[in-house]
Write a structure and sequence with these properties.
303 residues, alpha/beta, Rossmann fold, 2 domains, 6-stranded parallel β-sheet, 12 helices, globular
């Protein structure tokens, strides 16, 4: 990324007519690692002179204007982050089955005919990060997902699609847990927060995922008293994954590791979902390891 954010029209003017533009839209978005990952991939692919990525600050409610700007500036692809995933899902001309089931788009491709195609690569990015980071595959495994927001829903659907034997979902709002678990039918099951039923599901799980923002740097929440899954009940042979990647590791992962679990933070999901987007935009195999190296340099573990 070339420092800060700019409009798509400005990015086109700055880059010239022969460059393929991609980027990320969101608010706030200046902190996003997506342009860094994209540009690292383009450099590794020998495309650094003809593909460039930028961050585009788009306030809430302005997704339609952003897609109009995408068309007028001839932007090839956009990564979509909060708060626009739901709005973009309703605005694109066509979407993938995954995006339709989630009601959320995190990736847009501008087709040669001017139409916009939307998909969601969050779930496949998470499953790929599990394989690379811990050698874990969901097929036939028991999973617990904490949370029922957009990221959690993507993970729940992806685990079910990858053949998980059981996906238990826990959330502070029971109704949201029911709706999220429904994505994983017939293997999805909402589990009440607190009590012996949740503890039993966690202790029987092969994978436990924190898909909430608890513990994220810059927030005032995330203390031990707020954890729905107590990490001390985890044990060896389990994988504990946290979708948060700042700080690295999160307090929950520190405690999960102390309990004996193999731990995995959210940086891998970020890298692999971005790689899947690049594959769609460029039609080429993305250099995942180069993207990993760029991510690690920008977000080194704290210890």
């Amino acid at each position: 990324m070339d420092g800060g954010t700019m409009t798509m029209a400005d990015a086109r003017t700055r880059s010239g007519s022969d460059v393929h533009l991609v980027g990320v839209i969101g608010s706030p978005v200046a902190h996003s690692l997506s342009p860094l990952l994209h540009d690292a991939a383009f450099a590794a692919m020998g495309l650094g002179e003809v593909w460039r990525s930028f961050a585009f600050e788009i306030p809430g409610g302005a997704a339609a204007a952003a897609l109009d700007a995408m068309r007028s500036a001839a932007v090839t692809g956009l990564s979509v982050t909060m708060p626009h995933k739901g709005d973009v899902a309703r605005l694109v001309d066509e979407s993938s089955e995954t995006a339709r089931r989630l009601g959320a788009v995190n990736c847009v491709l501008a087709r040669p005919d001017g139409s916009l195609f939307g998909t969601n690569t969050d779930g496949e990015g998470f499953v790929a990060s599990l394989a690379r980071g811990s050698g874990f595959t969901p097929q036939g495994r028991r999973c617990v997902v904490v949370g029922a927001g957009g990221a959690a829903r993507a993970v729940i659907l992806a685990l079910a699609d990858a053949g998980a034997a059981h996906v238990a979902v826990v959330n502070r709002t029971p109704e949201r847990a029911v709706g999220a678990a429904d994505l994983a039918r017939p293997v999805g099951e909402p589990v009440p927060s607190g009590g012996s039923e949740l503890d039993a599901a966690v202790q029987a799980a092969d994978l436990v995922v924190n898909a909430t923002p608890l513990g994220m740097a810059g927030t005032t929440t995330g203390g031990r008293e707020e954890w729905l899954v107590r990490p001390e009940i985890l044990h060896g042979g389990q994988v504990a994954a946290d979708l948060v990647y700042a700080p690295r590791p999160t307090p929950w992962l520190v405690a999960a590791r102390a309990a004996g679990a193999t731990t995995l933070d959210g940086l891998g999901m970020l890298v692999h979902q971005a790689a899947a987007q690049l594959a769609l935009w460029t039609g080429r195999e993305p250099p995942v390891e180069a993207m990993w190296e760029a991510a690690e340099r920008s977000s080194p573990p704290s210890g």
